[in-house]
């Protein structure tokens, strides 16, 4: 556990972006190094918009550029390490008996860390963009890059689970409504109106993209390892393991999800076409969850979330 805590410390320093200097040497104005030093100073002064504007002028891609850009982006959204720590210490379960090292921290991170309303949207967008940016870094296997992407993906997990739960509930309602107007015993029956379902699937697609990003960022990550079982997993690892194991089960034209109206509607070819449009091939246990897999395999409450 202590090893994982030591691994996490550089992540925390990167998020706060304070009290360390990436560039100690004297630099010439308007060089990439000078621009990045200027951006770091702006981040220290909490001028996150100015830092991002400065970083746009940097010509050479690097891991340090992406780390600074992620820090500025998160700061602009109002999400910093201090925001996350405040969420942790304000929790009621932050006690020595609740875990050790990094597991203790991840056990205490709640979905409330991203806030509500527009603030929530802004922070989740910043997290998504930061993780995406870090995973495309020149050397994404470098510890600071990999660990920060993994940590931020962990922060994204619970809010994404909440969004997925709501999206599935809305999709279930749309499917049940569709089943009341179509002969679900005939797979080739035409769907008269898929507007409500397609609206729900738009949200499902967003959630699916976020989950794919989270699974990618947490693969082979020492901060979050969802391959264990039981007490070996912290709260976020438990959720990711449950989702990955149950959602990544393939997608079928004849799903076996029960006798409910929503599940019966999933047997319609027109619905299957809507689920698979714009989505990749659904293969069970391939480490990726498509939109179709998310709907078919997580339709029953509690199966995946």
Notes on the structure:
This protein has 305 residues and is mainly α. It has 13 helices and no strands. The chain is 60% helix and 0% strand. The two termini are 26 Å apart. Helix 3 (48-55) packs antiparallel against helix 4 (63-76) and helix 8 packs across helix 10. The protein has helices spanning 2-16, 32-44, 48-55, 63-76, 81-89, 101-108, 117-135, 143-179, 195-218, 235-247, 261-266, 269-276, 291-298.
Q: Strand pairing plus helix content: what structural class?
A: mainly alpha
Helix and strand run: HHHHHHHHHHHHH
Tally of DSSP helical segments = 13
* Distance from first to last alpha carbon: 26 Å
The best one-word shape is elongated
- Overall pLDDT metric: 84
Salient structural properties:
305 residues; mainly alpha; 13 helices; elongated
Task: Please outline what is shown here.
It contains 13 helices and no strands. The chain has 305 residues and is mainly α.
């Amino acid at each position: 556990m202590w090893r994982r805590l030591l691994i996490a410390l550089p992540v925390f320093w990167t998020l706060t972006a304070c009290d360390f200097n990436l560039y100690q040497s004297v630099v010439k104005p308007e060089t990439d190094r000078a621009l990045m030093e200027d951006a770091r100073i702006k981040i220290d002064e909490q001028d996150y918009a100015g830092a991002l504007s400065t970083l746009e002028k940097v010509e050479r891609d690097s891991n340090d550029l992406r780390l600074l850009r992620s820090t500025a982006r998160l700061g602009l959204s109002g999400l910093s390490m201090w925001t996350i720590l405040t969420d942790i210490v304000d929790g009621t379960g932050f006690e020595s008996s609740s875990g050790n090292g990094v597991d203790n921290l991840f056990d205490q991170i709640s979905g409330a860390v991203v806030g509500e309303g527009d603030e929530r949207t802004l922070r989740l967008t910043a997290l998504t963009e930061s993780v995406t940016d870090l995973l495309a870094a020149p050397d994404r296997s470098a510890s600071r890059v990999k660990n920060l992407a993994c940590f931020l993906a962990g922060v994204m997990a619970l809010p994404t689970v909440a969004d997925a739960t709501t999206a599935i509930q809305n999709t279930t309602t749309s499917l049940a409504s569709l089943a009341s107007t179509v002969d679900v015993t005939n797979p080739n029956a035409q769907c008269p109106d898929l507007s409500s379902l397609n609206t729900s699937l738009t949200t499902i697609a967003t959630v699916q993209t976020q989950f794919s990003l989270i699974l990618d960022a947490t693969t082979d990550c020492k901060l979050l390892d969802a391959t264990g079982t039981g007490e070996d997993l912290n709260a976020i690892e438990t959720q990711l393991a449950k989702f990955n194991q149950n959602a990544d089960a393939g997608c079928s034209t004849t799903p076996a999800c029960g006798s409910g109206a929503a599940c019966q509607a999933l047997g319609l070819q027109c619905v299957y076409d809507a689920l698979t449009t714009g989505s990749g091939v659904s293969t069970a246990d391939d480490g990726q969850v498509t939109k179709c897999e998310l709907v078919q395999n997580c339709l029953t409450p509690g199966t995946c979330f």
